[in-house]
What does this fold into?
Amino acid sequence: MDPQPADDRFPVDQLQVGDLLLMLGKSQLSKLIAWFGDSRYSHVSLVSADGLLIEGIRPAVKESLLADRLAPDGPVVFVDAYRSLAADGGPLGADDRAIVLRHARSLIGTTFAQDDLVTIGLLVALRGKPRHLPVWLRWLIREATEHAIRADSDRMLCSEFAYRAFADADTTPARRLARPIVPGEPSDLPFPDVDYAKLQEEVREMLKPKHKVLEQNAIGAEALAGSAPVWDTIDALELDDDALEASITALRAQVGLAAPHHADVANAAEGLLGAAWPERGPPNPKLVRPRDLADSPASQFLGRL
It folds into this structure.
């Protein structure tokens, strides 16, 4: 499980190429991404060279200024740094770091998941939905999965990009730098403190200009356009378990994960990722979460930037 916030700050100038930066975004959807991912983190980036980071972020993988991410008015609440190690837990040499960076840069322009709502949909599809959902969260899951089905993208998540930067790098033997992924125990993180009004604004913006589901329901469409929270009228949408499961199943099939999964998030992670790599083979990159990268034996927590 990712660590508690560190008291000591890690100096930015001591970061190395290939280190991982795990962070929590400021948006309400970022809070939910972190929670659905069973972690405090909603996003992961790879340290590039010359003060840059490289990441899967909409609309495509790109390089950005690290200073912009760390600015007081930047888009994140905090950033934790992890030293990237070799697959066996030993130091990662400069030549290997250069190989990782070269492959990461080759992925620049690869289409990323369309937006944070798509990301939530994919997390739910990959991990299963938690039980005992409040009405508004049932609505959000349905919208997120339907939105992800409609999205026209290759649906690469930020953690998939970070994993592939190592696993698919040009090495002999192949996958020599692949980070081992060890499924951990489910966390006891409390449900985040979500500002529902702000969340509604974020979701409404992402559902523009078309919203096929609510277009077919006058009550839902009116709520989306008005000031009342959408989930105040969700009972009229009759989002039962069968409807939710149908959307999740359709999205799983679309991303090539047609096998059924358990409703329990921990069981889904165990069943889909399997035991520790390499005993039962490498993980499906699409199932790798920011938490899995933080927990990997090839990651060493450094501190908060």
The first strand starts at residue 20 and ends at 25. The first helix runs from residue 28 to 36.
